[in-house]
């Protein structure tokens, strides 16, 4: 019985891949993809809808730049005729780096089978982890030529984990059903797109363009925003550093404010073998977090450069706040001293303008949008948060091990809200 089912499955899969193949041969094979992003106003996390299962269903996920995999809760309302949990010790399990046989006694259904493989899933906000069943199902994603979404394309056997719903319990928007990891790990979303579409010429690259209605691209540039702006043109590049955990780092060598060096302990700026120190990028932290000594230096320097402007009572979690009316607005936000992250070469800088350095934390109160990370020496010294990446294109290019960054797109009379989501059939 089981073996005839397997045989059927095999025939079905080879027929369906044959159909897919002949479909894609008709036109040029899609090798670039796009996902719409939405900022959740309460948690300030970024949410994307991904089409999964059979019949296809829209499932909302939080985007975790450093997440190792895509996990979803399956306990309730997981209906799909194409769900499959690979047996433990199968090739899929070794691909997911799982050497653990999962057993489950509560019920029989997605997420709960015996002799499948167990993988840890993590809530990136709380750090809570849970053993989950490795599974496969269809994932569909919209292709693009760079300026509009095109036809949907299927990945028939996308690997993910089925996590218990308690993992959703804190820190995440109530609307989401899981987390989509973009980390440099064996079964993350970009890695699986690369292995599935590699033969179609997919470049192992993805890019974030964060904004309340932002967008995320997979595959090579160019990418266009209305009114027909190639947002990859302003990119500068710095080496992309990947930690042993598959997280994305870059090398900040110093910080300048108003073109003057901020005195900071440069020992904190390099990452060591234990992934301590250095500068990580994150979509899970709404604002950039600085190690306490860097935080103190940056805040004091910024306030000194703005000493003509009186400070007002700070709004948590910030500590330097001003009356919003004190600043003249420019195209790139309130006119305040620029903050430059000086990278591997002293001429390569990620410039942070007022739109990304000040946030209106309460009506009429604008605060320096950096948060004190405390004195702990057990993680990155700088975690570049989502607010500092908003309306900047940030490209993670694995083939060339480089990080591309555009600085503020507002300069180019566009923003990350400006992707034309009118689909071209
Ligand atoms: C898994 O095996 C255990 C022990 O043999 C059994 O009690 C349980 O019902 C099984 N679970 C499923 C989902 O079949
Ligand atoms: C968006 O794209 C569609 C399809 O190409 C096009 O018809 C429309 O004019 C575009 N929108 C704008 C504002 O340019």
TrEMBL record:
<feature type="domain" description="Peptidase A1">
    <location>
        <begin position="46"/>
        <end position="406"/>
    </location>
</feature>
<comment type="similarity">
    <text>Belongs to the peptidase A1 family.</text>
</comment>
<dbReference type="InterPro" id="IPR033868">
    <property type="entry name" value="Xylanase_inhibitor_I-like"/>
</dbReference>
<protein>
    <recommendedName>
        <fullName>Peptidase A1 domain-containing protein</fullName>
    </recommendedName>
</protein>
<dbReference type="InterPro" id="IPR032861">
    <property type="entry name" value="TAXi_N"/>
</dbReference>
<keyword id="KW-1015">Disulfide bond</keyword>
<feature type="signal peptide">
    <location>
        <begin position="1"/>
        <end position="17"/>
    </location>
</feature>
<dbReference type="InterPro" id="IPR001461">
    <property type="entry name" value="Aspartic_peptidase_A1"/>
</dbReference>
<keyword id="KW-0964">Secreted</keyword>
<dbReference type="GO" id="GO:0005576">
    <property type="term" value="C:extracellular region"/>
</dbReference>
<dbReference type="InterPro" id="IPR021109">
    <property type="entry name" value="Peptidase_aspartic_dom_sf"/>
</dbReference>
<dbReference type="GO" id="GO:0006508">
    <property type="term" value="P:proteolysis"/>
</dbReference>
<dbReference type="GO" id="GO:0004190">
    <property type="term" value="F:aspartic-type endopeptidase activity"/>
</dbReference>
<dbReference type="Pfam" id="PF14541">
    <property type="entry name" value="TAXi_C"/>
</dbReference>
<dbReference type="InterPro" id="IPR033121">
    <property type="entry name" value="PEPTIDASE_A1"/>
</dbReference>
<dbReference type="Pfam" id="PF14543">
    <property type="entry name" value="TAXi_N"/>
</dbReference>
<dbReference type="InterPro" id="IPR032799">
    <property type="entry name" value="TAXi_C"/>
</dbReference>
<keyword id="KW-0732">Signal</keyword>
């Amino acid at each position: 019985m089981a073996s005839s089912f397997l045989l059927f499955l095999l025939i079905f899969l080879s027929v369906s891949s044959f159909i897919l193949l002949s479909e894609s041969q008709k036109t040029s094979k899609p090798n670039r993809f796009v996902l719409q992003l939405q900022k959740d106003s309460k948690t300030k996390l970024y949410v994307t809808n991904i089409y999964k299962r059979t019949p296809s269903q829209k499932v909302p996920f939080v985007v975790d730049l450093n997440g190792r995999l895509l996990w979803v809760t399956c306990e309730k309302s997981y209906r799909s005729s194409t769900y499959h949990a690979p047996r433990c010790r199968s090739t899929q399990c070794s691909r997911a780096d799982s050497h653990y046989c999962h057993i489950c006694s509560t019920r029989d259904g997605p997420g709960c089978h015996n002799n499948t493989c167990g993988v840890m899933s993590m809530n990136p906000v709380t750090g809570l982890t849970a053993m989950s069943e490795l599974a496969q199902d269809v994932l569909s994603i919209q292709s693009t030529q760079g300026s509009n979404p095109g036809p949907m394309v299927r990945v028939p056997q996308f690997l993910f984990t089925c996590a218990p719903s308690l993992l959703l319990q804190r820190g995440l928007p109530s609307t989401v059903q899981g987390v989509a990891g973009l980390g440099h790990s064996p079964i993350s979303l970009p890695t699986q797109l690369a292995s599935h579409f590699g033969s179609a010429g997919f470049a192992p690259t993805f890019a974030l363009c964060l904004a309340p209605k932002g967008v995320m691209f997979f595959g090579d540039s160019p990418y266009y925003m209305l009114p027909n702006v190639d947002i990859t043109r302003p990119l500068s590049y710095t080496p992309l550093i990947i930690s042993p955990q598959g997280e994305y780092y870059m090398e900040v060598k110093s910080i300048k404010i108003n073109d003057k060096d901020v005195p900071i302990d440069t020992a904190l700026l390099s990452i060591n073998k234990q992934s301590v120190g250095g500068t990580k990028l994150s979509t899970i932290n709404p604002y950039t977090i600085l190690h306490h000594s860097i935080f103190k230096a940056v805040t004091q320097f910024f306030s000194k450069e703005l000493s003509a402007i009186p400070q007002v009572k700070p709004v948590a979690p910030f500590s330097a706040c001003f009356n919003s009316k004190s600043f003249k607005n420019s195209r790139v936000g309130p006119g305040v001293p620029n903050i430059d992250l000086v990278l591997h070469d002293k001429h390569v800088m990620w410039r942070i303008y007022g739109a990304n350095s000040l946030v209106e934390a309460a009506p009429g109160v604008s605060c320096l949008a950096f948060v004190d990370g405390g004195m702990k020496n057990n993680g990155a010294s700088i975690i570049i948060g989502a607010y500092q990446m908003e309306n900047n294109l940030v490209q993670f290019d694995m083939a060339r091990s480089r990080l591309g960054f555009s600085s503020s797109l507002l300069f180019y009379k566009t923003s990350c809200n400006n992707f034309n989501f009118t689909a071209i059939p």
